[in-house]
Specification:
heterodimer, A: alpha/beta, Rossmann fold, 5 strands, about 40% helix, B: about 325 residues, alpha/beta, about 20% strand, globular
């Protein structure tokens, strides 16, 4: 990791947010807050962590990425387009009639391994990929990005149990822990704390990080597995709507579509950032 | 049927190193030989069917042929969304195996009876649905699934009809087997309950009524041509299934015949009608309770054809 890398990923995160603002505004798609929450994670993953090649999107040696919080599909599309998996112009078709870019992420696009959208599915699929990798002593890793809300799902914990039991050290779960789920704060719905302790008790090696600190994200994700013989969990403390002041920490922007004056103000804020 | 299925997998596993057998912590005793011989191809994932189905999708995406195995509704209804989204939508090469189709588990109770599975699974895009009637069909279905690519569902019954395979006959998925010729009425059955249809056909034949008995071992895709021919060549059509009549074999036949413009002289769906199989008893006993035994089938035929109803007591 060096300053050049994180300068690059910060610029990438800014472009992802800007694309997503336009995509959700034009297409009428929502979840902008949930995407801004993990835009820095996408940028660090696709700006230096994941071994993926747009010229060989299905290479057997690639790192796999399963976006379990499929409602952040717009952010992944933007990251993939920026990495050259498909033309950036395609992003503006997001959500529109006849588009390839569904609101929830679709594997019909190059670079996307798995379609998701229903919560609590991604980690099981990722664990299956990781188990297959172990069976053939493959060197690639499997990363999955989860929302905190989908840790309400029992199936998520089934996968957590499985991955630890089978010592899937090639599996990395990143949780976008913005503490706001579908229609309310997590603290008012189903408390997850002590969250890191739960993962630890289930047999994972856990680290916590500021999910908007590119150097910290890069450092943590560069050092997986955190412990030999264990799957790694990175709890990324994030802010829902990060990057646009009036979208931050509010349930409203899980759903609201940025248009008119709100779009202009959001764009101005994003553009003013370094 | 379970042993026939496991036997085929045990026989062919060495030729299919990509095969992985996932159990939801069931199969006590019956899987020992497979596990001992192919430990790297077996995985007990625990009592966690949602995870089992998602894992299976992930493993299949990496090139494995994956079987998921459990009892009754556990490998299907419990994890239906994983089957729909993770397996079917991705066209993943996963074979879902239910042991204990219909009311196989008898006195164990309704929780273990799979009586809506065919209806639910056959409406999923990309899904092949197999429901063999005898040990030959079960073994051949298992053999076929090892070479088939994509999602499939195999419903195994504890009971099995007597084997009716003819010398040289090959198993053709997607086709219906005519196990007895006849032109008075068609009895189209799926699963082990076909045994009751054969008994009813025997009794009716003694009175001069001849049933065409069809084994519908593939519910999807359904062999509409054979059904349409039976509808026009025989006096009427009766579907027989240890399953709800809604959307199962009877529903599927009705859809196929209507679309084909092939209208049977009469049409009866025999199966569970808007009821849970809540009575306690063996599979054999429950067939009498829910009018799926040979006597009930013979009575239905007799009533429809207007002949002596007291054929079987």
């Amino acid at each position: 990791m060096n300053a050049q890398t994180t300068n690059g990923t910060r610029a990438l995160a800014k472009r992802i947010r800007t694309h997503v603002l336009q995509m959700t505004s034009i297409g009428g798609g929502s979840h902008v807050g949930a995407i801004f929450s993990c835009a820095d994670i996408f940028a660090v993953l696709y700006g230096g962590i994941l071994n993926v090649d747009p010229a060989a999107p299905e290479s057997p040696d690639r790192d796999r990425f399963v976006l379990s919080k499929g409602h952040a599909g717009g952010g992944l599309y933007a990251a993939l387009a920026e990495r050259g998996f498909f033309p950036i112009e395609k992003l503006l078709t997001h959500y529109q009639d006849g588009s390839d870019l569904s609101g929830h992420v679709s594997h019909k696009l190059p670079g996307v391994d798995v379609s998701t959208g229903a919560l609590g599915h991604g980690l099981s699929i990722a664990a299956g990929m990781a188990y297959a990798g172990k069976l053939r002593d493959a060197g690639h890793r499997v990363f999955s990005l989860l929302s905190d809300g989908e840790c309400d799902e029992g199936s998520t914990w089934e996968a957590i149990l499985f991955a630890a039991h089978h010592q899937l050290s090639n599996l990395v779960a990143i949780v976008d822990y913005n503490r706001i789920q579908g229609i309310a704060p997590i603290a008012d719905v189903l408390e997850l704390e002590p969250f890191a302790d739960k993962w630890t008790a289930f047999g994972w090696a856990v680290r916590e990080v500021d999910g908007h600190d590119h150097e910290a994200l890069h450092r943590a994700l560069s050092s997986v597995p955190f412990v030999d013989g264990k799957p790694s969990c990175l709890i990324a403390h994030t802010t829902k709507g990060k990057g646009v002041s009036f979208m931050e920490n509010t349930v409203l922007w899980h759903y609201r579509i940025p248009r008119g004056a709100e779009f202009d103000a959001a764009l101005a804020e994003l553009e003013s950032q370094s | 049927m379970r042993d026939a299925f496991v036997g085929v997998l045990t026989e062919l596993a060495p030729q299919h190193p990509e095969l992985l057998f996932l159990s939801g912590d069931l199969g006590f005793g019956v899987l020992n030989d497979f596990i001992a011989r192919f430990p790297r191809q077996f995985l007990n994932v625990g009592v966690a069917e949602q995870n089992m189905s998602g894992l299976a999708a992930g493993l299949a995406m990496e090139g494995h042929t994956v079987f998921t195995y459990s009892i009754g509704n556990f490998p299907t209804l419990r994890c239906l969304e994983q089957i729909r989204n993770d397996i079917c939508y991705h066209g993943a090469n996963v074979k879902i195996v239910c042991v204990g189709g219909g009311m196989s588990y008898g006195s164990v109770g309704f929780s273990h009876h799979a009586t809506e599975d065919l209806a639910i699974l056959r409406c999923l895009p990309n899904m092949l649905v197999l429901s063999p009637c005898d040990l030959w069909e079960a073994a051949e279905a298992a053999r076929y699934l090892l070479s088939h690519r994509g999602p499939a569902y195999l419903r195994l019954d504890k009971s099995a009809a007597p084997t009716t395979v003819r010398p040289g006959e090959t198993f053709r998925p997607g086709s219906i087997r005519t196990v007895r010729e006849g032109s008075d009425v068609t009895l189209a059955a799926t699963g082990g309950v076909l045994a009751e249809a054969l008994l009813a056909a025997d009794a009716l034949a003694e009175r001069g009524t001849f049933c065409r008995v069809l084994s519908v071992h593939t519910i999807k895709p359904l062999d509409a041509a054979t059904l349409a021919a039976a509808a026009s060549e025989t006096g009427g059509m009766i579907s027989i299934e240890e399953h709800a009549v809604d959307g199962g074999l009877g529903g599927a036949i009705a859809e196929a015949l209507m679309e084909a413009g092939a209208f049977p002289g009469f049409f009866v769906r025999m199966g569970l009608r808007n009821t849970f199989s809540s009575v306690i008893g063996s599979q054999k006993y429950l067939r009498t309770v829910y009018s799926l035994d040979a006597a009930s089938i013979a009575r239905t035929v007799s009533a429809k054809l207007g002949i002596d109803a007291e054929i079987l007591s």
